[in-house]
């Protein structure tokens, strides 16, 4: 009989894990707290590791990417205190070749596989997904795990047995809380806030696919341009005083954090767009650090296990990689669950630790902690920009000449 796994959470980590489990011959069942699948979402940089993991999971061909075409002079601008714009080094200019997507693009590609649509030229069984369902109690016995599940629609609770529980329920994971302990034991507070949303339209006088950076000590506003979609705004600020994200108006809190900067037209446009945006993400920033991601027959993946946070720009790539790694480990150790879960953790942990460490450095680029750091970052980035843009301009000229000759 096929072994059954309960996967908690229909995000990138949960769907990746379910695909990995299915490939390893398991039967995954996904439960999701929300009543329906979310779509859209904020801007995401996918690193090559994430693109490779998408290929390993067989979803790469279904992943819609939205990188704007590079043009001489670049597509990214930074705006100084006097409102003057100058070319900036965009994250997409990196030679490693990042992919620009919306979170919903990754989830849509994973969903196609989950629903059993054609993947890698073949078909797979659809994965059972139960919406509006959460685990309430997780009890491990000798031969399996018993989970008390609750259907939010009917209020009905029922018990079900599984061979494995995968907690993929995000940074504030309830599986982690129930099985490993309280949030305070694992969530490090980075004393910063994030707000992200889609702009209805680009900031006036910029190209639709331009990216714009307005960075000041302790607060920064980034507009990320896309090839075939309205840009996305990403606002962040450092604060000692982390508000209750559900208390009061998040829009008012963001406005207060950026007060004094709104004489800049970019800032004004973005804040006005926030008022009109149908939805936005507003949250405090944490990193999740755990000594172990598994105990017995319960294992964590994605933000639940190692949330690196938004500054790392690695959360979705590592979630895809985590799901693929879990599946590969179970495939390699079909008759020894403990060995499989150990292999999953041992194989992945060095990469996760490296990325978590580098997030602190990346944070300085996204939102400098002080004026000297801001000046230092801009000098270093400008030097790198000159080299990178020289190379990109040469490549652009060569490819234009080639296509001219072909015509
Ligand atoms: C503004 C912003 C920008 C980002 N930018 C990038 C980027 O550029 N590059 C990058 O790689 N990453 C980025 N990230 C991080 C990335 O989005 C996350 O790391 C990734 O989506 C985590 O996926 P996950 O599946 O682990 O968790 P989540 O996306 O949080 O999904 C968890 C799922 O579990 C469900 N759930 C929660 N509790 C329960 C429960 N009790 N029962 C059932 N279901 C439950 C939730 O509803 C949700 O569907 C960014 C994040 C933010 C907020």
From TrEMBL:
Molecular function per GO: FAD binding
InterPro entries: FAD-bd (IPR002938), FAD/NAD-bd_sf (IPR036188), FAD_aromatic-hydroxylase (IPR051704)
Location of the FAD-binding domain: 5-351
A matching Pfam family: FAD_binding_3
Protein name in the entry: 2-polyprenyl-6-methoxyphenol hydroxylase-like FAD-dependent oxidoreductase
Organism: Pseudonocardia cypriaca
């Amino acid at each position: 009989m096929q072994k059954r796994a309960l996967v908690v959470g229909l995000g990138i980590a949960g769907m990746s894990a379910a695909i990995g489990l299915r490939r390893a011959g398991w039967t995954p069942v996904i439960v999701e707290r929300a009543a329906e699948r979310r779509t859209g979402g904020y801007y995401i940089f996918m690193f090559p590791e994430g693109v490779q993991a998408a290929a390993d999971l067989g979803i790469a061909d279904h992943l819609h990417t939205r990188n704007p075409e590079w043009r001489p002079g670049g597509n990214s601008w930074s705006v100084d205190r006097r409102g003057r714009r100058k070319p900036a080094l965009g994250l997409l200019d990196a030679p490693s070749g990042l992919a620009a997507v919306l979170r919903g693009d990754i989830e849509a590609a994973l969903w196609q596989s989950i629903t059993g649509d054609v993947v890698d030229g073949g078909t797979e069984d659809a994965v059972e997904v139960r919406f509006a369902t959460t685990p309430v109690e997780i009890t491990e016995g000798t031969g399996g795990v018993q989970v008390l599940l609750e259907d939010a629609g009917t209020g009905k609770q029922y018990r079900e047995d599984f061979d494995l529980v995968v907690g993929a329920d995000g940074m504030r994971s309830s599986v982690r809380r129930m099985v490993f302990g309280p949030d305070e034991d694992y969530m490090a507070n980075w004393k910063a806030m994030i707000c992200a949303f889609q702009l209805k339209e680009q900031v006036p006088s910029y190209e639709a696919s331009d990216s714009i950076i307005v960075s000041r000590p302790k607060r920064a506003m980034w507009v990320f341009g896309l090839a075939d979609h309205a840009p996305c705004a990403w606002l962040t600020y450092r604060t000692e005083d982390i508000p209750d994200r559900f208390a009061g108006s998040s829009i008012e809190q963001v406005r207060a954090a950026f007060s004094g900067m709104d004489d800049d037209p970019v800032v004004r446009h973005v804040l006005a767009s926030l008022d009109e945006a149908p939805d936005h993400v507003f949250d405090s920033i944490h990193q999740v650090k755990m000594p172990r991601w598994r105990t017995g027959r319960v294992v964590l993946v994605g933000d639940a296990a190692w949330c690196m946070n938004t500054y790392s720009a690695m959360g979705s790539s590592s979630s895809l990689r985590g799901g693929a790694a879990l599946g590969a480990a179970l495939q390699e150790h079909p008759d020894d669950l403990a060995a499989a879960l150990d292999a999953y953790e041992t194989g992945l942990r060095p990469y996760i630790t490296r990325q978590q460490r580098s997030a602190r450095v990346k944070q300085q680029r996204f939102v400098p902690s002080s004026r000297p750091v801001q000046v230092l970052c801009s000098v270093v980035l400008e030097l790198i920009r000159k080299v990178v843009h020289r190379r990109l301009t040469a490549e652009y000229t060569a490819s234009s000449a080639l296509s001219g000759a072909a015509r």
